[in-house]
Amino acid sequence: MDHRLKDFVCHGVNWAGLMPAVRSLFAGRATIIIFHEIQREFRSELETGTPVSLFEHSLNWLRRERWEIVSLEECLERVSRDDRSRRYAVLTFDDGYRDNVSVALPILERHNAPFLIYVPTGAPTRTLNAWWLGLRELIRSRDDVTVDAMDTRFHCADVQSKVSALARVTEWVHEDYRRAAMLALTFRKAGLSLSALNDRYFLDKKEIQALSRHPLASIGGHTTSHSALKILDSASARAEMADNRNYLQNLTQRPVRHLAYPYGNPRACGPREEQLASAVGFSTAVTTRPGHLDALPLDHFGLPRVFVESRIGFQAQMSGLQRAFHMLRGDAYRAGAAAGGSGTT
Q: Which of 229, 290, 328, 335 is packed most tightly, with the most Cβ within 10 A?
């Protein structure tokens, strides 16, 4: 659904007081929710994460609407035995950002909410090609930006134009994930260190070890280098998963059972990656394809998730409004979902 049309429909349904009826008819029994950064300074970070106010609102809404926040294991177990006593939500965070602990953790503790953080090896080792962090730093620190690989110059003197420029370059990368490596020249010319940005934004080894001991937290895999697995050969894709799992298990001295595919959309992962994830020892793998957990048997290696983009958008996602839209159009929900998942994960 076009974003403008989606917002219009969401507000209209909510204004008419129809969201509870939509939820009773179309909401799934369980939903996995995806977050990245939880930002205190949402505008200065060019609106790239979730503002803390929206994060708090989301958890409060779940409690108010009687969604039970549970671990991924408990959620899958309850759905598999067709437990319809409650609706269940799973909270997941991709990439291992520092603010997941400094900002989100106190809120999660107040709600006694379990959560799962998916960590790529390159984040704590400070070797991750976090091109999205480099782009954000480049664009917010300059009014004129040239992206060499695009042969494009942006003039962005205010926050909104910077947000637009960042979105445009990000979408260019998402069209072909091989382009991520092509940004290195631009970063080098600008004197930007991705290693330094890794150190600023991602949890370090000791922080991950400490977090893994927290009673509410679980650590999951997110590959070694955060590459789009679908563009790699089978041996390389398998190594990305297996080496990351081994690294995290050695670091935390705990089993690592769950995986998030980098980027998580159909351009980045598919049936081959599902087979590889199972073969290297993971129990589940999540995508960024939107959807709820309903159909049995569950596809444990192609689990859908939903993004939190706005208050009304979150309510609509959790209430199944997107599913209702596709069903009314006569579309298969999963076919419609295949076009989703453009976020950096």
A: 229
Domain range for 186 is 131-195
* Domains in the chain, number: 2
Residues 146 and 30 in one domain: no
Strands 217-221 and 115-119: parallel
> Does residue 344 fall inside a structural domain?
no
Asked whether residue 324 is assigned to any structural domain, the reply reads yes
- The whole-number pLDDT of residue 29 equals 84
17: left (phi > 0), else alpha (psi -120 to 50), else beta?
A: left
Q: And the tokens for 245?
A: 């799992």
Q: Could you tell me how many residues make up the chain?
A: 345
pTM attached to this predicted model: 0.89
Per-residue pLDDT band for 294 (boundaries 50, 70, 90) equals: confident
Helix, strand, or coil here: 90? strand
Dist. CA 76–CA 71, nearest whole Å: 9
| CATH number for the domain that contains residue 257 | 3.20.20.370
21-70: per-residue pLDDT in tens? 555 545 678 999 999 999 999 999 999 999 999 999 999 999 998 999 99
